[in-house]
Design a protein that fits this description.
five-stranded mixed β-sheet; alpha+beta; 7 strands; single chain; rod-shaped; Heat Shock Protein 90; 2 domains
Length: about 350
């Protein structure tokens, strides 16, 4: 609910309350203005009580699950506020009378107790109204998050396997069939495992890091077919691989590294290390690149990385860190994820 709508609701409620209470205010044509001023001050006072609970006590105490403090402070406030209210009314009366003599005349315990009902009503309505507004905000936020999650999941489905990677892999396998049928068969099996992983494993919310690494290893081995030397790529894993992680999370970073990597004299041209320790997953990838290439800078905010950032925010809010740096010769990417749930 927008702030503008909330303001309109406040205005409507207070205008309704004012007009609903006019017949009981004692205000009539030709009567002393003191009646009107008293009525206005009484309403302002009740508005003060209302907004003390709406703006301060509910957000600061009740929303922070501090129910005991909220009830205790509310009790003391409601016990004390009728006295303040009557002091305001006595002050208005003294102003119109032109004297403060016998300022407290007429004040009694019975009068004090009679002030509880309007004060409690204002406090209850202020608290209730804030709780309702918070509930509507939470429902709207959840609906928006669900929409974003659906959009991200749709993006993930669309980008499960890069078409260029698939086409290139199939072309490479086709070339291998004549030269090395055994290697071609092995490549087809790897491609089949990738397709199976993307089709079935990614349907669940998380997979083990071991399964994700197997998927990455197959991905890398299919890419190696294009390279002349196996030393061009270094892939290392370390630590406990039982941690649960969102599936196909690292592929956009790996695809970017392969896309802009320069495989030449430097060995290895691309380095990938994944480690896991006590649920903290550390992903690091670096690659040499052509000095005159600006493609990665343009791609840095592109579709794949934008989708990755959305997934990280949804799956690991406040529990991840993504650093992308362009050095003089290498791109370096580090992604650290705390897989422990809050």
């Amino acid at each position: 609910m927008s702030k503008k709508k909330i303001i309109y609701i406040h205005l409507f409620v207070w205008l309704f309350a004012i007009f609903a209470n006019l017949p009981y205010s004692g205000i009539k044509n030709g009567m002393h203005p003191q009646e009107a001023v008293t009525f206005v001050f009484a309403f302002l006072y009740l508005m003060l009580v209302f907004y003390l609970f709406y703006i301060f006590f509910v957000p600061k105490l009740l929303n922070n699950n501090n129910l005991t403090s909220f009830l205790f402070i509310s009790f003391l406030l409601v016990l004390f506020m009728p006295f303040i209210g009557y002091m305001v009314l006595f002050f208005v009366k003294a102003i119109f009378a032109g004297t403060f003599t016998n300022f407290f005349h007429g004040y009694s315990l019975r009068m004090h107790m009679s002030g509880f009902y309007p004060v409690v009503t204002a406090a209850v309505f202020g608290s209730f109204f804030r709780v309702i507004i918070n509930w509507v905000a939470i429902v709207n936020q959840k609906a928006e998050l669900d929409k974003q999650k659906l959009a991200v999941e749709l993006d993930l489905l669309k980008s499960k396997l890069n078409p260029h990677f698939l086409f290139n892999t199939l072309n490479n396998i086709d070339s291998l069939i004549r030269k090395d049928p055994e290697e071609a068969s092995s490549a087809l099996i790897r491609l089949s495992e990738i397709m199976r992983y993307l089709t079935y494993e990614t349907e669940s919310g998380t997979v083990t890091l071991e399964k994700e690494i197997t998927y990455i290893r197959n991905f890398i081995e299919l890419f190696r077919i294009r390279l002349k030397s196996p030393d061009d790529i270094l892939f290392e894993t370390k630590g406990d691989l039982c941690a649960e992680i969102s599936p196909a999370l690292f592929i956009p970073l790996i695809e970017n590294a392969f896309k802009f990597a320069r495989f030449g004299n430097e060995k290895p041209g691309l380095t990938l290390r994944i480690s896991s320790d006590a649920g903290i997953v550390n992903f690091r990838i670096s690659n040499y690149y052509n000095m005159n290439s600006s493609g990665f800078e343009n791609n840095n905010s592109g579709y794949g990385l934008n989708n990755l950032r959305k997934r990280l925010e949804m799956a690991y809010p406040g529990r991840h860190r993504l650093n992308i740096e362009k050095g003089e010769q290498q791109f370096q990417v580090e992604l650290i994820i705390d897989t422990h749930a809050n």
